[in-house]
Design goal:
The protein has about 1050 residues and is α+β, with helices and mostly antiparallel strands. Helix content is about 40%, strand content about 15%.
């Protein structure tokens, strides 16, 4: 039983460690397609108000031949004055980033300029790879410099005769928070017109909080920005907030989840997630987002719109993906009047792969409709250019699809080691209107024919495609006949193309395929869906689309009826890979088999993937989101409610569940393998509900305060009661999904099944912490027992001993709080070892009546072990400050952003006002005497007094242990020893400290009340990781109250 329990605990801890690793570690493949790197000259712009500083403001001069700057005009006006004709753009990099990251945006922006001068003059702040994500003080320093840099840029333009040029801000990651904090600091200057901010573009910025915001100051800063900055648009006399655009990288960004990179409700602006951007349709890693060609091609359009003051109107072109037309039924407006149909052909059947057609007439169309011909698929290569073919609707069909795929032209560039190839060329554009045309026809009984043009859906990346997709009118007059007319246009020198056209059933009516039993496994729901999802971990679910038995646009996901579906779908990720049947060729000569299109429940997050011929071996598994031949649709938890640019016409046809469409050749058999991705499940679970895991760890730790060490059965009994009660209160005080400026991002209470798993993970972590502390204090007690008792010194009274010990810790906390809490985590197990030695000597102690019973000693040991566990959790809150100190101690702050700036950095660091300090959060040496900066110091007062009281109790225990040993020696000598030895034993026993029974009972009551708070921890903390600091501080204050009563009880 003990071995089985130990294995279960080991598995639980391993799952927790692995979950943190895949959520925030290098889980995703960091290789991104189409990486690009450019060069630029730069000059330093002085910011006098911030001197002395090692921060720099740099002006960029992109090195590109496409700028076509007139040399004569440059010489006459001077380079700087000439560039002042262009609106300014300021880039702020993020945590340990570099100003070089903006070069690609600057080059692309000026490369696509339609004027003789640059489209924008780019500036960049250079913080020399400062660790802004570790501490709020770094963000505030950078924000102060950024605010001064904005004023300085405005002065430069005013001196050049352009005082009202609007400044566009671009912030990446933590640089976005720096930009927003700088805007907050410039509130009065913006009101006075000293600086004009036109627009703000935030790329992967944690706007709505972050699961790793454990440092209290960082949370306070983020909350202050949200509370004060966003509501400015409603305040009288305050400068209006400029339009803000937030860009999220998608699910493959492990550092900033897309849900926290969105704008809060009520903000002026919009949020765009990268996979739903037109001609992007892919997720990115946190940094490679700035180096990928197809993403930069879209972002540059936004930059052009921002500098022109048209940011809000241009968002619709990127947000309103043309793929939305696949999920909507647009209202058809049929034209009136006669149509010229000379030379049209009526497609009848396929004979030996050749198209059979006859001359079109309304009567022949009616005859074909009366005969009710079978579904017909027409291939692109069988069409004659310039001929219009008419395809009558088949029986049971309602949707016409005409799909054309075009092979991308190869790019002759050197492929870098960090890329998987460069297959995106902005100049290689497919022009659908020049390739083909299609329309719907409705022939009335009186012989008149009405038509409506079908607008093509054009895709550029990751596949060049034209999709004509339309639904037949639902209501028709009696005797009316529906058909589709399509034409293959002449195009000289066009690349290789393939395609097919046919009528098929509506994919949103029924299932649309013959794989209804397998469709539920794609996006499972409820408990049964969870089991079907888990089953695909061992064996992939196979969905077979037979040749001629599926639609060109087929839906392979069933609607989820369970109310848990919106919460479960993002947490149960599936990977899909398409392959051909044995002997079946690919849909295209270049290896393309199918196109996957996935949409979330709201139809706002649309993702696209291409299934190409790839290795048929093992699945990518570990990082399937980055595999070229695997489609991994990932959605944001909850209903994201991204602000939209405009509404697409047509009513949505799916609202209850995510759905998946497959676009493929209907005459070719296609096999789709669906497999669950456990790694992505762990990553999403810990990214979304990390706060719940930490809260469950804290609650289980509080429960185990009353369970003696080594009593595993009693521990699991107490944890079982705690899990039940904690689940009750978590369900009673459940939260809904929300995203606003006041609370930030709230994912809502997780589903009950996930909440149970989280509680058990917290229990496993708490038991593992007890085992680690027990092993550590056992080792310390073993070493201490071999020598003299190191705590036998005496200070006259236990109260004096407690004050001396507490004073030492208070002094250390004032010097360096993070280092102090680290030493406290070493001191606490050392004091616990004293009680282990006391328990080991229980026989001799009981003989002289100097200590409590053995059960009380075990309870004391469990209580002190619980204090050590809480102190370990408290160390997590100070980990960012500790890492920052180590970062400074190793000299990483001396790392320059570029090799050319290294000498300047080393020369300016010694006198810089922004130089990082080794004494992070120091109340004595930090130079920040405010209350906010004093929070880390004040937070350590409670554990300091606890350690002081524990040291006093340990000294009393050592004294009692020594008395017991002397008394035992005297008693043993009572048979053969002298009277002097027996008298010495009695005097030593009389000198031992005594315990007040009343105060001891009060301490026991406080311990009981302390443990009763455990069931409320998860409900109070929820997903908010920053509340761990408050919970630990409250627990330590409870320990301090008990410790003070216990010390006062000694007399």
């Amino acid at each position: 039983m003990g071995l089985a329990a130990g294995l279960i605990e080991l598995v639980g801890v391993a799952v927790s460690v692995l979950g943190v690793f895949v959520a925030w570690g290098p889980y995703q493949d960091d290789r991104t397609q189409n990486l690009m790197r450019n060069r630029a000259r730069h000059e330093v712009v002085d910011v006098p108000s911030q001197e002395p500083t090692h921060f720099r403001l740099r002006e960029l001069f992109p090195m590109t031949d496409a700028m076509n700057s007139p040399i004569e005009e440059e010489r006459k006006l001077g380079l700087r004055a000439w560039r002042r004709k262009s609106p300014p753009v300021l880039f702020l990099h993020g945590h340990c980033g570099k100003w070089l990251q903006v070069i690609n945006i600057a080059v692309y922006t000026n490369y696509l300029s339609n004027t003789s001068r640059p489209a924008a003059a780019f500036f960049a702040t250079d913080f020399h790879a400062s660790a802004s994500a570790l501490h709020s003080s770094v963000v505030r320093q950078q924000a102060a410099f950024a605010a001064a840099a904005m004023l300085r840029i405005s002065e430069l333009y005013a001196e050049a005769g352009a005082p009202r040029q609007a400044l566009t801000l671009i912030g990446h990651s933590m640089g976005g928070l720096v930009a927003l904090e700088a805007l907050r600091l410039l509130g009065s200057e913006r009101s006075q017109g000293l600086v004009n901010i036109g627009a703000v573009v935030l790329i992967c910025t944690p706007l709505l909080g972050h699961p790793l915001l454990l440092e209290q100051g960082m949370h306070d800063l983020s909350s202050q920005i949200r509370r004060e900055l966003w509501p400015m648009v409603f305040r009288d006399g305050a400068a209006p907030m400029p339009p803000v655009l937030a860009l999220a990288a998608g699910d493959t960004d492990p550092l900033v989840p897309s849900e926290v990179a969105a704008l809060p409700r009520g903000a002026v602006g919009a949020t765009i997630i990268a996979p739903s951007m037109h001609n992007v349709y892919a997720s990115f890693s946190h940094v490679n987002l700035l180096f990928s060609r197809h993403f930069l091609h879209s972002v540059v359009k936004l930059v052009h719109a921002a500098v022109d003051g048209k940011l809000q109107s241009s968002v619709a072109n990127l947000v309103d993906s043309p793929l939305e037309s696949l999920f909507r039924r647009p209202a058809l407006q049929l034209g009136a009047g006669e149509m010229e149909h000379a030379g049209w052909r009526l497609a009848k059947s396929m004979e030996n792969g050749a198209l059979s057609s006859t001359e079109f007439s309304v009567d022949s169309l009616r005859e074909a409709a009366r005969q009710g011909q079978s579904p017909l698929a027409v291939h692109w290569e069988n069409l004659d250019a310039g001929v219009t073919y008419v395809l009558p609707v088949s029986q049971g069909s309602a949707v016409f699809s005409f799909v054309i795929l075009e092979q991308a032209r190869p790019i002759k560039r050197e492929i870098e080691d960090t890329t998987r190839g460069e297959d995106f060329n902005p100049r290689d554009v497919i022009v659908c209107n020049a390739l083909a045309s299609a329309r719907l026809l409705v022939a009335a009984e009186d012989g008149s024919v009405r038509q409506v043009q079908i607008v093509p859906l054009m895709l550029q990346y990751p596949v060049k495609a034209c999709i004509f997709h339309a639904t037949a009118p639902a209501e028709l007059a009696a005797g009316a006949v529906v058909a589709a007319a399509f034409t293959k246009l002449r195009k000289k020198g066009s690349p290789q193309s393939v395609g097919w056209a046919h009528w098929h059933g509506d994919p949103f009516v029924g299932d649309g395929t013959r794989a209804q039993s397998a469709a539920q496994a794609v996006f499972p729901s409820g408990i049964s869906g969870c089991w079907s999802w888990a089953a695909t971990l061992l064996r992939p679910q196979t969905i077979r689309l037979a040749a001629g038995g599926h639609a060109a646009v087929a839906r392979i996901s069933a609607a989820m009826a369970s109310q848990l579906a919106p919460a479960w779908a993002p947490l149960l990720p599936m990977d899909l890979r398409a392959r051909g049947a044995p002997g079946a060729g690919a849909a295209t000569p270049w290896g393309l088999r199918a196109i996957f299109v996935a949409a979330d429940a709201g139809g706002e997050d649309i993702q696209l993937g291409v299934a190409s011929d790839g290795p048929s071996g093992a699945w990518a598994g570990w990082a399937a989101e980055s595999a070229s031949n695997v489609f991994a649709p990932r959605f944001v938890p909850g209903r994201a409610h991204w602000p939209r640019g405009s509404d697409s016409s047509g009513a949505p046809v799916h609202r209850e569940a995510p759905c998946l469409l497959v676009i493929s050749d209907p005459t070719t058999e296609l096999v789709i393998d669906v497999r669950a991705n456990a790694w992505s499940l762990l990553a999403r679970l810990f990214r979304t509900y990390l706060g719940y895991v930490l809260a469950a760890w804290m609650g289980a730790t509080l429960v185990l305060h009353r369970v003696p060490l080594g009593y595993q059965r009693e521990a699991w009994s107490s944890l079982s009661v705690w899990v039940t009660s904690s689940l009750f209160f978590a369900a009673l005080f459940s939260e809904e999904w929300s995203s606003d400026a006041e609370t930030g991002f709230v994912p809502g209470t997780p589903p009950l099944e996930i909440l149970v798993v989280i509680h058990f993970l917290g229990a496993f972590l708490a038991i593992a912490s007890r085992r680690a502390i027990s092993g550590l204090d056992f080792a310390l007690s073993t070493l201490a027992c071999r020598g003299r008792c190191w705590c036998r010194r005496r200070h006259g009274s236990p109260v004096a001993a407690a004050l001396v010990e507490a004073a030492v810790w208070v002094g250390m906390a004032a010097v360096h709080p993070a280092g102090c809490i680290l030493l406290m985590n070493v001191r606490a197990p050392a004091l616990l070892s004293v009680f282990r030695r006391r328990s080991a000597n229980g026989m001799s102690k009981d003989a002289f009546g100097l200590m409590a019973a053995h059960e009380a000693e075990e309870a004391d040991g469990a209580w002190h072990a619980g204090f050590s566990a809480v102190l370990g959790l408290y160390l997590l809150c100070y980990t960012p400050s500790l890492i920052l100190s180590i970062w400074v101690l190793q000299g990483q702050h001396r790392e320059a952003s570029s090799k050319q700036a290294e000498d300047d950095l080393l020369a300016s660091l010694p006198t810089s006002r922004h130089a990082p300090c080794l004494m992070v959060d120091s109340w004595l040496f930090g130079g920040r005497p405010g209350l906010d900066s004093a929070l880390p110091f004040l937070g350590l007062l409670a554990p300091a007094f606890v350690l002081g009281c524990r040291a006093a109790a340990a000294a009393a225990a050592c004294a009692a242990s020594a008395v017991g040993t002397d008394g035992q020696d005297g008693g043993g000598a009572g048979l053969n020893g002298s009277a002097e030895q027996r008298s010495a034993g009695k005097q030593a026993a009389a000198a031992a400290p005594h315990v007040s029974e009343g105060l001891a009972a009060l301490a026991a009551l406080l311990r009981l009340l302390f443990s009763m708070t455990a069931p409320f921890v998860v409900a109070v903390a929820g997903h908010r990781t920053y509340r761990l600091w408050h919970l630990c501080l409250c627990a330590l204050c409870g320990h301090a109250a008990v410790a003070v009563v216990e010390v006062l009880a000694l007399r």
